[in-house]
Amino acid sequence: AQRVTQPEKLLSVFKGAPVELKCNYSYSGSPELFWYVQYSRQRLQLLLRHISRESIKGFTADLNKGETSFHLKKPFAQEEDSAMYYCAPYNTDKLIFGTGTRLQVFP
Amino acid sequence: NAGVMQNPRHLVRRRGQEARLRCSPMKGHSHVYWYRQLPEEGLKFMVYLQKENIIDESGMPKERFSAEFPKEGPSILRIQQVVRGDSAAYFCASSPQVQNTEAFFGQGTRLTVV
User: Fold this and answer.
1) Which of A103, A100, A36, A69 is nearest to B33 (CA)?
2) Which of A83, B9, B26, B52 has the most CB atoms around its CB within 10 Å?
3) Best residue of B36, B40, B43 to probe chain A, by most A CBs closer than 10 Å
C-alpha cells in the first residue's frame, strides 16, 4: 500500500540548533515529493518540492530513493520556524499527506 | 487573486442535520481537492474533482458524504445526517490544470457536531 510516514509528532529544539524532520514513503514509481508548512492561524502552504532542488527559508530536503526518504533539514533553527510540517508525495492524481510533525523552537 | 476561499469558517450542526461546506478555488484553477483533519491526525484525502467530474473519491466515506464541483459556482462538500465523529476541520485545495503543480489551500471549515 502507498504510504507516507512522519515518525515524530513533536520535535523541540532550541534556537540555533540543527533540525531534521523525517519523512519516509513507500510508493511505486517515482512520486514527486513536497513539504508543506502550516504556521499558527495560517493556511497550509508549500514550503518546497524536491524537483526544484531549492532552499526555502534555509530548509532543504534531499530525496533518497534508496532509503525512500525525503527528510527536511535546516542547520540553524529560528523561533519563527515553529509550525506544523507535512511531508506529501504526489502520486497519480493527488497529494497524500503524512500525519505531520510539530516543530517547536525555543528561544 | 483572493486565494482559495472556504465558507463558513466555523459550522455547528446538531446530530442528524446536514452540513454544506463551500470552496471557491483560485481563479483559473480547475482542480479541487477536499481533505479532512481529525484531532491529532494528519490531513486525510477525501475527494478530487474537476469541473463537473469526480476524478477520485477513494477517500470519501461510502455513506452520507458527497461532493460536487459544478460548471458554475463553488465546490460543495455535503454531509448528510451528521454524527459526532464528523467533527473535524475540512480543507479544500485547488491547483491549475497542469498536474504535479503546487496545491493552494483554503483556511478550512471547522465543523462541530453537537
Assistant:
1) A36
2) A83
3) B43
Is pLDDT above 90 for B38?
A: no
Q: Tell me which of B24, B102, B107 to substitute to probe the interface with A (most A C-beta atoms closer than 10 Å).
A: B102
Which residues of chain A does B35 touch, with a Cβ-Cβ cutoff of 8 Å?
97
Q: Which residues of B29-55 are buried (b: 16+ CB within 10 A; e: fewer)?
A: bebbbbbbbeeeebbbbbbbbeeeeee
Q: What is the pLDDT of residues A18-68, one digit of tens each?
A: 999 999 988 777 778 899 999 988 899 999 988 777 778 899 998 887 878
Q: Strands of A15-93 (E only): list them.
A: 19-21, 24-26, 32-38, 45-49, 60-61, 72-74, 83-91
Give the integer Cα–Cα distance in Å for A30 and A92. 10
Cα–Cα dist B50/B71, whole Å: 9
What's the first-to-final CA gap in chain A, in angstroms?
A: 41
How many Å is the Cα radius of gyration of chain A?
A: 13
